């Protein structure tokens, strides 16, 4: 059973490359199993742990825990170095961590640099929960004059404004209607 983690990792890598899980015979070939019973036992253990499930057509599909990733024991210092410790075995599923309402959540790629001082740079992907109400200080996707923009919601006197996070850009003071499309609840980027 100690090797189940390694077997699961191989299956996850296969899924990442092919976007489908291997068949039972494919798992046997990939992992070097000689018997169908060994594959059946492995799959049963991974199902019990929530990593795999059976689709209605009896093929395998990712289970609820399939996309969990190991969470390191301690945070990494962005300032002075700290003593390194081993990984703990807690896990985190990114989607569950960031997305509370999947039906109301969209991913939007950022273009432009008006939010760079807030740490949002071009080609970042922001996770936006669609809702029409936001609080002052929320980073929002707003619709101004039929155009989308990403800014921080602010207020001047009794009027809502959109604040950039780059001094090269002006505050947007809508003359017409300001609509909130959604609130940014997270972001990510992939380094090349």
Write up this protein.
The protein is α+β, with helices and mostly antiparallel strands. The chain folds into two domains: 1-98, Winged helix-like DNA-binding domain superfamily/Winged helix DNA-binding domain (Arc Repressor Mutant, subunit A); 101-188, Umud Fragment, subunit A, CATH 2.10.109.10. Helix content is 21%, strand content 28%. The chain has helices at residues 4-18, 24-31, 36-48, 94-98, and strands at 52-54, 60-62, 69-70, 91-92, 105-109, 125-130, 139-144, 147-156, 159-163, 178-188. It is elongated and about 75 Å long. 16% of the residues are buried.
Question: Would you kindly provide a brief summary of this structure?
Answer:
The protein has helices at 4-18, 24-31, 36-48, 94-98; strands spanning 52-54, 60-62, 69-70, 91-92, 105-109, 125-130, 139-144, 147-156, 159-163, 178-188.
Q: How confident is the prediction overall: mean pLDDT? A: 88
Question: How many domains, in number, for the residues?
Answer: 2
The CATH architecture designation of the largest domain is: Orthogonal Bundle
Compressed to H and E, one letter per element, the order equals: HHHEEEEHEEEEEE
Please give the oligomerization state of what you see. Answer: single chain
Largest sheet: 6 strands, antiparallel
């Amino acid at each position: 059973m100690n090797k189940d983690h390694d077997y699961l990792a191989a299956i996850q890598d296969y899924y990442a490359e092919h976007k489908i899980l291997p068949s039972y015979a494919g798992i046997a070939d990939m992992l070097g199993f000689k018997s169908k019973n060994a594959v059946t036992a492995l799959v049963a253990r991974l199902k019990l742990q929530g990593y795999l499930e059976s689709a209605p057509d009896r093929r395998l599909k990712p289970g609820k825990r399939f996309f969990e990733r190991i969470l390191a024991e301690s945070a990494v210092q962005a300032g002075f170095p700290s003593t390194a410790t081993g990984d703990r075995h807690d896990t985190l599923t990114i989607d569950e961590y960031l997305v509370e309402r999947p039906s109301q959540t969209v991913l939007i790629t950022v273009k432009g640099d008006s939010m760079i001082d807030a740490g949002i740079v071009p080609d970042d992907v922001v996770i936006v929960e669609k809702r029409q109400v936001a609080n002052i200080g929320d980073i929002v996707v707003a619709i101004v004059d039929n155009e989308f923009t990403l800014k921080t919601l602010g207020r001047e006197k009794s009027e809502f404004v959109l604040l950039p996070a780059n001094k090269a850009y002006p505050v947007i003071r809508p003359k017409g209607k300001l609509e909130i499309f959604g609130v940014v609840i997270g972001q990510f980027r992939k380094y090349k």
